[in-house]
Design goal:
Elements (H helix, E strand, L loop, with lengths): L6 H24 L20 H10 L11 E4 L3 E5 L1 E5 L4 E5 L1 E8 L6 E15 L13 E14 L3 E11 L4 E12 L2 E14 L11 E21 L2 E9 L1 E5 L4 E15 L2 E15 L23 E8 L13 E5 L4 E5 L1 E5 L4 E14 L4 E12 L5 E7 L2 E6 L6 E7 L2 E6 L6 E13 L4 E13 L18 H10 L1 H4 L3 E14 L3 E14 L36 E4 L2 E8 L6 E15 L8 E12 L5 E6 L3 E5 L2 E5 L2 E5 L4 E4 L3 E9 L5 E12 L2 E4 L3 E12 L2 E12 L17 E18 L2 E16 L4 E5 L2 E8 L26 E8 L2 E5 L4 E15 L16 E13 L8 E14 L2 E11 L4 E5 L5 E8 L2 E7 L1 E5 L4 E6 L2 E5 L1
Length: about 1000
Amino acid sequence: MMRRLLVTATTAGSLIGLYFAYAALLRPVVEVPLAPPRPAAGVDAEPPRPLENVRIAQEHLSHQKWAASAKYHLRSQQAFVYTNDLQPEGREGRVRLRPFALAWVEVHPDTQTEQVFTVVSESALVKFAGSYEVSNPDPGRVVFAALDGPAQVAGPNGLLIDGRNFFFSESSANLWSDHAVKFAYAGSLGSADGIEIDLIPQQGPPRKDRPHIFGASAVRLRRNVNMQLQLKQGREPLTLTVRAGGFVYDLIARQAVYTTNVQASRMTGPEQYDWIDCDQLTVEFAGGDAPGTGASSATAEYQQLDQRLEFRRLHAESLPPSDPQRKRKPVLLVSHAHQLEVTAEELVYDGEQRWLSLRAADGVKIRQQQGLNQLKAPQVVLQLAEGGRLAGAWCRGPGWLVHRVERSADVVFAADWRQELRYQPDPVSGLDMWELGDSATFRQPAEGTALGGDYIRLWATGPTSSPGSAPSNDAAPNSAALSGSTQVLDPKFVGGLQPRRMEAVGNVVLVSPRLEARCQRLEGWIEPEDAAPTPNSGEVVRPVSGLANHSATSPSNQQPAAEPFQAHAEYIGVRLRKRGQSTPELAEVWTEGRVVLRQPQPAGQPPRTITGTRVHLQNGGSNEQVVQIAGQPAQLRDAGFYLEAQQAIQLDRAENRVWTDSPGALQLLLKEDLRGTPLPKPQPLDVTWKERMAFDGTAATFTGQVTARFGDSQMTCQQLRVVLSEPVSFTDLQRTSGAVQVRSVHCRDDVQFQNFTYDRQQIIEVQRAQVWELYLDRATGLAQAQGPGEMRMWRRGQAPRAGLGPQQSAKANRPVELEPADWEYTFVKFNGRMEGNLERRYANFYERVEIVHGPVPTAQAAINRDALPRGGGWMRCDELQVMQLPAADRSRGYIQVVGQGNVDLEGREFFAKADQVVYDEAKGAYTLRGFGRTARLWHEKQPGRTSPTELQGMVYNPETRELRAVVVGGEGSSR
């Protein structure tokens, strides 16, 4: 990682410029000692040289052999000057020293060791405030100085400056050189074309013994700045190269600025580098001493240099080009070792607050591994912790993030947002939290999943606990400049994310192979495989798609994968279970608020649908799912199946059972009617109830004011049980038609039945019944009822009929004409039981049975026994059998009624008593029999004359008034 690249580079460069130019040039040169008195006239001997001067020259100017034996040795308190020629120039107070050598000696206050700076040049020119004359030993302060020709400055810790023609001017408050300068310090090297120091005038009146200069305000390297800095990264050496068009260090603001084509780089391996390119690089420092360096003092000798500078802030920027047609050059950060490339218009790093900001109008671009990982946003802010570890990130403005697999370049995940992306550790959960704001999406193409919403929040285990993801604690703060941005896209960082929780709010859309959801709020939890299972959830969790999934575990019974469920709700909560590196599997789902769940089916089939206000699904693996649906109403719809409840529905797929303890409705599509007749197309059986319902796929039990409707039939009771010939499976993915067959129906408690029969949209028959209990078996045709009960039937008549059967006129070879307004009414009342067979078309009634039959004007009219109509009849008996027999010339066949045991028979013009009465609709006649006693008949042989007839057996036709005697067991002669 590019440690110390930005901050330390500029810090070192700034200090080199400051201390080289100021400490090694300014004070030694301008404090040239006063000229010594010349020898007296006529004395040729040279004055003795001070021993201390000689020692300093021999020890610190050994590279200038002439210095120790120089003709002139000059000294002030700290400065030792050596020259062989000291001549005034003109009358303006100038004096030239040729050659020129100077040693500036400082004693370290702590170690009491000497620190010596040396300056040498071909010559030095010094101008004093007053005139310089041999007779005037006090020419005043130095107001101008120049080092002519090649000049060199040397000092402690490898200090070396090579240049030429250095100048100092008190009036312009400058120290400068227009020529190339090279410098070295502590193993670091540098060069530039031209150097300039802006000086600070001293306050108060000028002093005679020193220039009227307090210190320096700025150091400037004018052109072609090159620095090779030897730094440290922790305990390891670091060589950093800096190139720039110019460099300025502002001592007052403690600010260093590299300008024009700035590049700072370091080698990380063979032909591998880390570097930063920008138009301008600004570094700000905070001083360890009081900020008195910017103002002069009348009492202070010189400006006190702040030697404890601490990095504060770095600013790299791209400047608008002078030519509007030219493209703006971006700030570029590159790391070959980490395959990282960052482009921006501005980079700011705050060392005190430890945050790094990248900004660009067209978006900051961060690319890693040759574009496998990319991030783009108008502004990226990274918050760093101790040691440079990433503590938070903030991407402001619309942006996106992509992470790809290195070998295949397949996208692992991608995210985009309109407003912001935030990353920070969550102090509550201890997890890392990612937040995406305003129209955000998060996609995992390989998994086929995507999440979108106005606001997305993701909790995951991430880099804060990952070893090796951050620099060491002893790394300098400047190492964070690229370490944070590298961590954001490091594969160990993003590729190692292990999501644990997610939340999305506002216009949420979730797409996955198993679930497609839309809601206003979504929450999800991903549990590791070692997490304890929640109640009612199995330890083995496998994929589930709503109500449909694999119904068997053997390979031969495996079914094709179901279409994903479509979920719409105000709120959706999802709990997932992750086993190793496998795809997380659904364990539990909660939904609230206008819930609609759909699972598409093959073409032409309606989707499986769940609707309600709340739905809770628990997945125990394979087909072990329990679904709870609450709502007003709660609804469950499948192929040929619809269930509705006013409060709640519960479904257990493992038991293939659905139930509710609230009022509701159930609809099943039937292939055949209740008599077993195939239907042209499936018809619905609708059942409603007021208390509860339970359905195991084969048998459905309904309780409380039950109403069942099928076609034109309706039945009500207090308890109903319907058994199907084939089960409805809540796990079968291959069900298509959904239509089923009813095997049996069992009704109890106040059973009422009503049926309408139509012929070409005209009602031809109405049936009503009321019994205590009713059982129908469609497979065998068995029909049973428990009385007391009543049955009524209206059939549209064909002609006037006599007695208990529908009559017709006896006109041979002529069809019977319908009389639309003429209905035949039949009423049966019994107190015992009823047994019959739908297939064989008969019914037997027991215990005090009564039957009334006759014509009525409407399908709602009834017959009073005391006012029988013409052709009407009444019969009472112990047992009654009604049979519908086929006839070749009758579309509906004909009816035969048999009454047995204490039979009483009445008609409008006759009445009878017998042990058995048989009415044959085909013949329109009654057969009366007595067993052990005679049958008796009272009828009108002639109008107005009634006479009794007693026979063992007889046949009577009320229409023709024909009476014939028969032998019990056969017919006899007529009488």
